[in-house]
């Protein structure tokens, strides 16, 4: 993905103070931040890295706004306009403090909250960013420690598609899965119901692989090899009851250039695939099988039969020829004749 500038409407940074196994507290900035060149670069970088990450969770607001108040906060700010952005961010931080305090392994950091136009979508972005120590050279050519934000290791972040939410989209919240316990508390903070329908997610995964093959204009043999490798991994995961890892999938299915396939799944629309579901083995059959029907017939065959010549497709006249007809079918056809 190419870097691009995002329109930042509102931006504020607060601080979550917490050590693992300790209590949580917050330090609030009194007002919004000016969108300086440095702040713009930070937002651009975060949006880009967030979009590139696979294995995110997706969902929608929980109905219970008493225990999951994020929907109410957002509605008050976006729809009713009864609270400003500063109040919205403060309410969010108070709720984050509660949720982080419930998770022993959660740790603190700087909490960036921004309303951004990202790729034409009005979104609310929340990211917890920690500091790390690097090395710098001074004007006097001395080597010193340099404390900076660890943007390459953002593990806690989420995004609410405000337009998708208002039009009643099926899923409009996403969050980084990260470590299980940490991801869980942040999901609760967002008020995200991420019930995953394995069949539907598997179908979207198969569709994404098909779209990738079409966009790359892969030769038939290369496309079939891609599908067979993907099918092998997904069938194995489904049989063992193991959740899908999109990172493992792209490495297994497209090992020579996994980043190309990873970009297919680095998307934020309703076609985005949620990581962590157990693949439905029924839904991966199109990767190795063709199945079709018309008013008077049905047919299903393996993709490999096209390569072996057992099934021959003529593009010019649109005919499909089956060879090596089994004896029982041959007898039935003769009997019908």
TrEMBL record:
A cellular component annotation (GO) from this entry: nucleoid
Cytoplasm: present as a keyword of the record?
yes
The residue ranges crossing the membrane are none
Q: Which InterPro entries match?
A: Nucleoid_associated_NdpA (IPR007358)
Q: Which key words are in the record?
A: Cytoplasm
Q: Does the keyword Cytoplasm apply?
A: yes
Which Pfam families does the record match to this protein?
NA37 (PF04245)
UniProt-annotated location(s): Cytoplasm
* Signal peptide from the UniProt entry: none
| Family (UniProt) | Belongs to the YejK family.
PANTHER family for this protein: NUCLEOID-ASSOCIATED PROTEIN YEJK, PTHR38772
In its UniProt entry, what is this protein called? Nucleoid-associated protein
Name the species this protein comes from. Answer: Andreprevotia lacus DSM 23236
């Amino acid at each position: 993905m190419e870097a691009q500038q995002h329109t930042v409407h509102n931006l504020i940074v607060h601080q979550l103070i917490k050590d693992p196994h300790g209590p949580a507290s917050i330090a609030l900035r009194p007002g919004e931040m000016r969108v300086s060149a440095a702040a713009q670069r930070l937002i651009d970088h975060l949006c880009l890295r967030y979009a590139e990450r696979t294995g995110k969770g997706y969902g929608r607001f929980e109905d219970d706004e008493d225990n999951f108040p994020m929907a109410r906060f957002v509605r008050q700010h976006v729809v009713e306009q009864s609270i400003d952005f500063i109040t919205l961010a403060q309410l969010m931080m108070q709720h984050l403090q509660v949720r982080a305090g419930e998770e022993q392994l959660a740790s603190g950091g700087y909490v960036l909250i921004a309303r951004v136009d990202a790729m034409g979508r009005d979104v609310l972005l929340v990211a917890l960013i920690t500091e790390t120590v690097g090395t710098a050279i001074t004007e006097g050519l001395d080597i010193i420690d340099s404390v900076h934000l660890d943007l390459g290791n953002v593990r806690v972040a989420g995004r609410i598609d405000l337009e998708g939410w208002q039009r009643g989209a099926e899923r409009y919240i996403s969050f980084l899965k990260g470590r299980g316990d940490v991801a869980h508390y942040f999901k609760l903070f967002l008020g995200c119901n991420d019930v995953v329908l394995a069949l539907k997610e598997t179908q979207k995964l198969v569709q994404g692989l098909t779209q990738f093959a079409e966009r790359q204009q892969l030769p038939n043999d290369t496309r079939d090899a891609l599908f067979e490798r993907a099918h092998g991994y997904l069938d194995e995961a489904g049989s063992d009851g193991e959740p899908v890892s999109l990172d493992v999938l792209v490495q297994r299915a497209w090992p020579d250039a996994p980043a190309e396939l990873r970009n297919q799944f680095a998307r934020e629309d309703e076609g985005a695939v949620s990581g962590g579901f157990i693949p439905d083995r029924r839904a991966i059959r199109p990767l190795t099988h063709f199945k079709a029907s018309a008013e008077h017939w049905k047919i299903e065959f393996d993709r490999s039969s096209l390569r072996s010549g057992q099934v021959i497709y003529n593009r010019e006249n649109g005919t499909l020829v089956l060879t090596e007809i089994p004896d029982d079918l041959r007898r039935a056809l003769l009997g019908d004749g």
